Amino acid sequence: MTTLLVFCGSFCVFFAYSSFFEWVLHKYLMHMPIWNYPFTAHALTHHGLFRADYSYHIQREEDLEKVTFAWWNAPALLLVQSPLLFIAAYFFGWTTFAGGLLALIADYVLYEYLHWCMHVPQDRWLERTWVFRWLNAHHHVHHLYAFKNLNVVLPLADWVLGTLIPTPAVNPSFEQRKKAA
Question: How much is the pTM?
Answer without folding.
Answer: 0.90
